[in-house]
Fold:
Amino acid sequence: MLASGSCGNSILVSSRNYHFLIDAGLSCRELLRRLAQAGLSPGDVSAVIITHEHQDHILGVGVLSRRHKIPVYMNAATLDAARSHVGEIPTARVFVTGDALIMGDLAVQTYPVPHDASEPIGLSIRNSESRIGIALDMGYPTKLVKHRLSESNALVLEFNHEPEMLRQCQRPWEIKQRILGKTGHMSNEAALELLCGLVHDQLRTVVLAHISREANSAQHALSMVKTRLESIGRADVGVFVGDQDTIGERIEV
Structure:
């Protein structure tokens, strides 16, 4: 994870010598700084996939496209909405939600998720050996979401907020209502319930993502997940927390 949280999100995925980003929600300068910390330059990045057009997922994508000529994959609705925030994206590659994108030796399956954006997506990434399921901003997991995330060896799931902390924080009430709604963000309990339904013998890694600074505690979310996994005999699953300010450790799947 290059960044994860309400102020910016970006995931670096690498397989063999192919590298791509999922979202680019930091400034281009900050994205390049974090890529350098991971040992990469802009020329090493072959693509960016955008999940939806909210600022914390697209902030740097316009400059990445215009200055560094990196192909940017998104559906048409997201592209139309993103232009008003980040300007033209000349290297845009438009796909239809439900398409599978080929990234090096990886197949990236796109699927719709319920969130208050134009046409938000989740991703399932696989090759002949492993599968990664990614579901970031969404209000609740649909049957399709659960299906696409099933049988994953690694999961990246949104653990956005603790409802009582959200109600007591300083955010405007209308934003709180949006977050709590069906097209908002998943609470710790909702994400934990989803996770427990996805546990299987080959699940090895879970990453807790998009944790709110104002309405959640990373330590609390981490403790919840570890305790529940221990209770079902899966203390062996590695649990990591995506951070807003620093890149995460390299996770092999």
